[in-house]
Amino acid sequence: MRVRPAVIQHWLVPLAVVACWEVFGRLAELPPYLSYPSQILAALWSLAADGELPGAVAVSLYRVLAGFALGTAAGMGVGIAAGLVKGVRNFFGPLVSFLFAVPKIAFLPVFLILLGIGDPSKIGIVAFSCFFPVFVASRQAVLSVNKRLLWAAANMGAPRPTLFFRVLIPAAAPQLFAGFRISLAHAFIVLFAAELIGSHSGLGVLIADGEDAARFDLMFAAILAFAILGFVSDRILMAIRKRMLKGTALGTEETIAA
Amino acid sequence: MPLLEVRRLDKSFAADNKQITVLDSLSLSVEEHDFVSIVGPTGCGKSTFLHIVGGFEAKTGGEVLLNDRPLGSPGPDRGMMFQDHTLFPWLTALGNVCWPLEMKGIAKAKRMTMAREYLDLVHLARYADLYPEQLSGGMKQRAALARLLALDPQMFLMDEPFGALDSQTRELLQEELQAIWRSRRKTVLFVTHDIDEAIYLGTRLIVFTARPGRIKADIRIEADERTASFRKSPEFFETRSRVWDLLRDEVLKARALEEQ
Question: Which H or E run contains B78?
């Protein structure tokens, strides 16, 4: 089997870095807090074997997905309304602009007081954080839909709900997905911070525990698990996107690259 | 009774604190089966006129009657075709042509068959399963034409539908539209900036003045035969030079307006 040059380009640098990391680690050339790959994998294995990792993954995944779903749904609903209705746009526009750049984790104390130390406060802060990028992307998506597509559909006798669900939404879909993707990354970032600061369970806690116990192999193992979760979620979202945007994505850089 | 009756139509809007009059007391009546070509300098309001008839833009004053009734919101009685295709990029050519049929409530199996027939009529049957982005410019406009035929409106409103195409493709599509119009006897309002196209296709040719748009001339084109030889006939050339003389002043006026 011939390996395509693109595949080599993708993997050459990461593999080289990991290999060097491993070699220098084994030669004891690295500081003690920088565990090397085989140590991290061993720690990952032991965490998985004693059930600690699956439990933490389940807790974090539930929080991130529930928060993402809620925040994205709310952001999309309000964002689309803002795109369609000037009043809604005027009401939410300045508010969102004002809060958009604030790190959402700063609001964690408020969520902890309101919703307690358990899952609801984590889901709440993740949803809050996801709302903003989705709102901004959805508003922009609706505003930039080619008006003529809606004209053409109205011309063909489409009633309003049809115009909304079968023309506006599909036409806005590429930008909506761009918003979802950013919001998914935000979800993981803010969850990690929230679990580090105020939580009794989850991957963030596992990382903090490893750090406290100076077990850096465990810490890196949990970070690795976090990265894998984020990466896989993103791939799943992109696969859904590719399926749903068949046709729309044609002729763009994306199809040329694929 | 004319199919479309336009009486003293006005259209103006405010831009940069100035009131701009686009159409000024425009009157026109169009009989059924007429193919009305509309030419005029850039910015003369010919597209706006079409958009008002289509129900997409509001008029400022006057009356527009279709079948003796005031025009309503956009609907399948008037079918619009734009310079850029407005096909839905998330649907295949077939899916796009199916759309108006679905809106009419035709059952799925039937509308698939019908849509294929319309695509066949515009020579696109082989490309039914391609998405708009995979089609050439000419093929996109063919698919848009098939969708218009599937909508089957009483009146075609065409806003420079072939304007963005290369000249060979454009001539081919003109011939096809001509044949379709002859066999189906639709009423057509056809806006173009191409005098040859306007003469070749139209039974009637309207020349708009520079802004504010008014009707400068209303010319009948009698020829029955609209074959390639019509394009070389004395009548064609006479009409051409006459229209160009009429248009020239207006184009110069329009340019002066732009330079103001």
Answer: strand B78-81
At B215 the three-state DSSP class reads: strand
Tell whether the model's pLDDT for residue A253 goes beyond 70.
Answer: no
Domains recognised in chain B with CATH numbers: 4-77+155-259 (3.40.50.300), 89-152 (no CATH)
Residue A158 touches chain B, beta carbons under 8 Å: yes
Pairwise CA distance, residues B192 & B82, whole Å: 11
Contact with chain A for residue B66, Cβ under 8 A:
no
Q: What is the pLDDT of residues B65-115, one digit of tens each?
A: 998 899 888 888 999 998 888 999 999 999 999 999 999 999 999 999 999
Q: Are B204 and B218 in contact (CB under 8 A)?
A: yes
Q: Can you read off the two tokens belonging to residue B259?
A: 């330079």
Of the candidates B73, B92, B151, which has its C-beta nearest A156's C-beta?
A: B151
Residues A60-79 pLDDT 10s: 999 999 999 999 999 999 99
Chain A residues touching B99 at Cβ < 8 A: 153, 156
At A41, which amino acid appears? L
Residue B38 makes CB contacts below 8 A (sequence gap 6+) with: B46, B49, B50, B189, B190, B191, B192, B198, B205, B206, B208
CB of B92 within 8 Å of any CB in chain A?
Answer: yes
Q: How far apart are CA B178 and CA B197, in angstroms?
A: 11
Predicted complex ipTM? 0.88
**Using alpha carbons only, what angle is made at residue A179 by residues A173 and A184, rounded to the nearest 5 degrees?**
125
- CB-CB under 8 Å, B103 with A158: yes
Mean pLDDT for chain A overall: 89
Q: What is the pLDDT of residues B97-108, one digit of tens each?
A: 999 999 999 999
**How close does chain B come to A153, measured CA to CA in Å?**
8
In a mutational test of the B interface, the residue from A155, A165, A241 whose CB has the highest number of chain B CBs within 10 Å is A155
